[in-house]
Amino acid sequence: DTFYKHQTQVLHLVEHIYEPISSHYEDLTTIKKTYDPLQHLDNFKDGDHVKHFVHDVTHGKYLAHDEIFNIFHPHHRRQMVYLFEILYGAKDFDSFFNMAVWARDHMSPRMFLYAFSVAVLHRTDCKGITLPPAYEITPDMFLTTDVMRKAYQAKMTATKTVIPMKFTGSIKNPEQRVAYFGEDIGVNSHHSHWHMDFPFWWKRSYDVTKDRRGELFFYMHHQMVNRFDAERLSNWLPQVEPLNWHHEIEEGFAPAAMYFNGQEFPMRPDGIHFHDLPWFTVKDTEDYEDRIRNVIAKGYVKASDGHTIFLNGTEGINILGLVVESLDHDYNRHYFGKLHSNAHVLLSKVTDPEQKFGTPPGVMEHFETATRDPAFFRLHKHIDNLFKQHKDMLTPYTKEELDFPGVTVDAVKVVGKSEDSTANQIVTFFDESHINLGNMWVHTPEKVGIEVTMKRLNHEAFKYVITATAEKETEGIVRIFLSPTYNWFGQEITLQDGHWGAIEMDRFPVKLTAGENVITRSGKKSVVTIDEPMSFAEIHKAVADKDATHFHKEFRHCGFPHRLLVPKGRPEGMHYKLMVVITDYHKDVVVPDMDVEHMDKLQSVGYCGVMEGKIPDGKPMGYPFDRRISCEESFITKNMKFVDITVKTRV
Ligand code: CUO
User: Ligand 1 in contact with 191 (CB < 6 A)?
Assistant: First the structure.
């Protein structure tokens, strides 16, 4: 019961985020009227912290209510982190919540929301509490201006309305063909959620394990880029080109969106060059990158305390991820700079580099909006190439390493659910996302529904059927990847070229009995995706029903949207290679006492890792396709099977 009470309180606090706390909620208004943080300093880890915070906020030193919170702005971030530390350090739930209520009405809504959300995600007494999807809390960060305007009209006139939203741009823009991916609200909330689970400003002193977070930074973005490339291919577009600091950014982008305070997101015309910012230059960025490239080429990094760490071990990729995202003091973060963050800022401010016109931040400076801009994928392709440079230097896996003695994969089949489905064919289609805007405003009469709909990619349910023979009873990990068969020119993609572009579909442990095994796995269970998040209304209902199944303590909210698991394909069918590899569970798993059942229960480990604890699969992410493959014949061992499948999009 306490849990449901807390869950409801959290929901109420993130409703109508741009308006003062609603007078509808008595408990919240009571706290608001009576709570004085200065009277409760002992309830926080650091009482002085609270004192300073209250002083600064009440003396107008914090970002004003109608200013735009930008996580990449050092002052904004410092303020947000300060609040986060107070909320995170509150000694019990009530102190945490009371302080949050106080803060909510005293500061910039999105700054509050960010600090509060990260605190909810990390406090042990908030385990199981579900935050509504970001696109319902701050729809303005996901919707276009015309849609928001229509929504306001509907609200003013209290008219029930369904507003269809179009993707930005016009038919003249080839990038428009893949807007359904970059502008998908699920992709954007996944990306923003990932960055809340793994904040780049996270401090070691918070004492929370973020296992292999540098590697996850590489891998999650690597997979997003690979998936974007696959979507491009299915729309007859070539692979995304990595950004180059000295070439023009060919494609412009017009977000057609407006901040809550009425300022427009800046647009970028075609063909702009990077410009120096007053506080760092393009040359700085290049220099930092050169230093990273040198370290990769040498194969070791000097830690801040002077000792040498070689990058050719399994830790190598993780360290590089930390360096590129500038996460860890251990690896000379001043020497390597903030390559990735600075690149986001350079792109975002490219049209007003000197801030002459006071242009607000571009989409690249918010994790909720970044992937809308095709340049996001170009930037991340560029960053991804650094990681590729490192992986290419590692010795390719040998046959002995790749093999799983005694285990053979005999056959692999994909079976669709629908009546007309053919074997080894997956059908994709477009349906609609719905966003309820009811939570934007307090004074919307309850009965008035204001909803936005937009096209979204989806696919029919399917399952994998894998036949494998084992000489004796054993346990394995099944790793499933998808890779386009032909490139943009229509030439067959070899494994030598194509391994880096492999898309991870699933990874799960299995028990194998001696003899023949038929492994059936539903696509739905994929360890890289999550189901559609519960809406505000659904969470409220689940609370009212006290339906505990929705609030499992281990439940993960980070993960790629399940409906985008399968790339779109083409109307006539597009060829893909489905690559299935079974490896030795006992060699791979690095968590003692982790049994198959337990490991199989972990959700969305693929791109989001384990929230607090170790990732059981010790193999490098992307294994065995992460390293160079010099020759296809010598790579494929009998514990692997590649089959041709088609992805057909229904029009
Ligand atoms: Cu996710 Cu660049 O890290 O956006």
Answer: yes
Radius of gyration (C-alpha) of the chain in whole angstroms: 25
Q: Are residues 404 and 515 in the same domain?
A: yes
Q: Of 373, 393, 413, which marks where a domain is finished?
A: 393
* Ligand 1 centroid to residue 367 C-alpha, Å: 7
Q: Tens of pLDDT along 623-639?
A: 999 999 988 888 999 99
- The residue whose CA is least distant from atom 4 of ligand 1 is 367
Range of the domain at 411: 399-424+464-530+556-649
> How many domains does the chain fold into?
3
DSSP state letter for 373: S
Rounded distance between C-alpha atoms, residue 644 and residue 505, angstroms: 15
Which atom, in ligand 1's list, is nearest to the CA of 325?
3
The residues that bridge with 253 in the sheet, in sequence order, are 268
- Rounded Cα gap, residues 651 and 421, in angstroms: 15
235-264: per-residue pLDDT in tens? 999 999 999 999 999 999 999 999 999 999
With a 6 Å cutoff on the Cβ, whether 344 touches ligand 1 is yes
DSSP state of 621: T
Look at phi and psi of residue 284 and say left if phi exceeds 0, alpha if psi is from -120 to 50, else beta.
alpha
Cα(590) to centroid(ligand 1), Å: 28
ipTM score here?
0.99
Please tell me what DSSP assigns to residue 418: S
- Please confirm, yes or no, whether 446 is among the known catalytic residues: no
Task: State how far the Cα of 99 lies from the Cα of 647, in Å rounded to an integer.
Answer: 51
Neighbour tally for 120: CB within 10 Å:
23
Which of 318, 344, 313 is closest to 331 using CA atoms? 318
Q: 383 near 217, Cβ under 8 Å?
A: no
